[in-house]
């Protein structure tokens, strides 16, 4: 079937093209009966707006660029689902790029998004990004940018993230209340925003219960399992009775390393993650976790960006939106002799 145009609809219904265009936009200027005739004809012949013509007319591409460290990470795949759902409902398409935790790749993907005329960018910073001058330069050119999950205090931008401090506080408090006193904290590189927030929550919980903050129980690790295992082995020399891992891959790597050393969970040590992995309840033992609201974070970030693109809010001001996390207690962090449900 040939693609029909607004001119075709206008010719068939003996209307002007401007009347048809306004009717398809549900303009109040067009009477209801004319709207009905136009919409029914358009649906019958599968009329689709020409995105190129529309973008030229509106001076917008109706495309938003999304840059994440890694799509395979379940957290980011869920966030992308939220972004895509909002973008689709508001008439935008999404182009997705991966930085693969590389600052250089992030620079390249930002350039590619701009070259494709994206109306705005949603970005979660790579694990090696500490300099955000490339994003600041785009803001100076009036390109809307919203950060999500991993943000930067050096960029005056709207940002959406999980309530990392409260989530980490709750995880650490749970371990303390279950009788643990030497809680190791395994986290990602220190310059990433979520690292600082989760470490602060961990420290605050220790302080609340009068436990010392011991630097020897803190380790920073890269993301791969091969990176995690030697870090866990090093921490075991400090005789911890619990591990709080501040990320999906860290938690899974920690679990694998402990099992390899024949450390019994939770009999020898408790384990809790900060994660969105959908298999946490299928692990042996089922793993306690702080669940991050990835879908909601993606939806909120997309709404903020599109509002900014469409001028429905003032120019971006420094503002952080924190979405609440949720504690899920499973067997891996239960006191010895107690199981979930007992």
TrEMBL record:
<dbReference type="InterPro" id="IPR046335">
    <property type="entry name" value="LacI/GalR-like_sensor"/>
</dbReference>
<dbReference type="InterPro" id="IPR028082">
    <property type="entry name" value="Peripla_BP_I"/>
</dbReference>
<protein>
    <submittedName>
        <fullName>LacI family DNA-binding transcriptional regulator</fullName>
    </submittedName>
</protein>
<dbReference type="Pfam" id="PF00356">
    <property type="entry name" value="LacI"/>
</dbReference>
<feature type="domain" description="HTH lacI-type">
    <location>
        <begin position="4"/>
        <end position="58"/>
    </location>
</feature>
<dbReference type="GO" id="GO:0000976">
    <property type="term" value="F:transcription cis-regulatory region binding"/>
</dbReference>
<keyword id="KW-0805">Transcription regulation</keyword>
<dbReference type="InterPro" id="IPR000843">
    <property type="entry name" value="HTH_LacI"/>
</dbReference>
<dbReference type="Pfam" id="PF13377">
    <property type="entry name" value="Peripla_BP_3"/>
</dbReference>
<dbReference type="InterPro" id="IPR010982">
    <property type="entry name" value="Lambda_DNA-bd_dom_sf"/>
</dbReference>
<keyword id="KW-0804">Transcription</keyword>
<keyword id="KW-0238">DNA-binding</keyword>
<dbReference type="GO" id="GO:0003700">
    <property type="term" value="F:DNA-binding transcription factor activity"/>
</dbReference>
């Amino acid at each position: 079937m040939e693609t029909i145009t607004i001119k075709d609809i206008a010719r068939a219904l003996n209307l002007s093209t401007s009347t048809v265009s306004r009717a398809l936009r549900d303009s109040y200027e067009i009477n209801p009966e004319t709207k009905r005739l136009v919409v029914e004809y358009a649906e019958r012949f599968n009329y689709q707006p020409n995105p190129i013509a529309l973008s030229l007319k509106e001076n917008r591409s109706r495309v938003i660029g999304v840059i994440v460290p890694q799509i395979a990470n379940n957290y980011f795949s869920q966030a992308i689902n939220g972004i895509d759902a909002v973008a689709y409902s508001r008439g935008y398409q999404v182009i997705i790029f991966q930085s693969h935790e590389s600052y250089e790749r992030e620079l390249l993907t930002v350039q590619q998004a701009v070259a494709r005329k994206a109306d705005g960018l949603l970005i979660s910073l790579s694990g090696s990004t500490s300099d955000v001058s490339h994003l600041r330069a785009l803001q100076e050119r009036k390109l809307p940018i919203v950060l999500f999950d991993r943000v930067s205090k050096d960029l005056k931008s709207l940002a959406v993230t999980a309530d990392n401090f409260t989530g980490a506080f709750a995880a650490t408090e749970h371990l303390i209340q279950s009788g643990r006193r030497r809680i190791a904290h395994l986290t990602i590189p220190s310059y990433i925003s979520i690292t600082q927030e989760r470490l602060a929550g961990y420290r605050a919980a220790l302080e609340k219960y009068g436990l010392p903050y011991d630097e020897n129980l803190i380790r920073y690790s890269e993301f791969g399992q091969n990176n995690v295992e030697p870090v866990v082995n090093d921490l075991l020399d400090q005789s911890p009775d619990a591990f709080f891992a501040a990320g999906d891959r860290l938690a899974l790597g920690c679990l694998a390393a402990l099992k390899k050393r024949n450390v019994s969970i939770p009999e020898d040590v408790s384990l809790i993650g900060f994660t969105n992995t959908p298999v946490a309840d299928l692990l042996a033992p089922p793993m306690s976790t702080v669940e991050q609201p990835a879908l909601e974070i993606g939806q909120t970030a997309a709404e903020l960006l599109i509002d900014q693109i469409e001028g429905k809010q003032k120019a971006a001001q420094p503002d952080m939106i924190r979405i609440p996390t949720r504690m899920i207690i499973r067997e891996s962090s239960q006191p010895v002799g107690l199981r979930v449900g007992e």
